[in-house]
Design brief:
single chain; about 120 residues; mainly beta; 7-stranded mixed beta sheet; 4-stranded antiparallel beta sheet
């Protein structure tokens, strides 16, 4: 069992930056591909970014390419999402997730473990 805890969310002005962290406990993260998703109340949870086990591959939603960067530090058992040039439409609850098999990482069903989420609010 892997427990994931997100942190780093908060309130930021449009154009600003935030770095989200996803820390794991219970097991090491290194065997897992990792992903970040977000959800606005009343809408579907959407894929943002994913990274393979040793970071040889990364994947992004088109709308966040060039603004968001996913990276991991397996020694610290943590995955990050660096978010720059934030827009009000980026306001959502952000979730990290861990996948045992690195297939279809843009889909929710690929992931076995989820964190509780962290709120990001971008003011205009």
């Amino acid at each position: 069992q892997v427990q994931l805890v997100e942190s780093g969310g908060g309130l930021v002005q449009a154009g600003g930056s935030l770095r989200l962290s996803c820390a794991a406990s219970g097991r090491t993260l290194s065997p897992y591909a990792m992903g970040w998703f977000r959800q606005v109340l009343g809408k579907e949870r959407e894929f943002l970014a994913a990274i393979s086990q040793i970071a040889e591959n990364t994947y992004y939603k088109d709308s966040v390419k060039g603004r968001f960067t996913i990276f991991r530090d397996n020694a610290k058992n943590t995955v990050y999402l660096q978010m720059n040039s934030l827009k009000p439409e980026d306001t959502a609850v952000y979730y990290c997730a861990a996948a045992t098999w690195p297939h279809q990482l843009t889909t929710q069903r690929a992931y076995d473990y989820w964190g509780q989420g962290t709120q990001v609010t971008v003011s205009s």
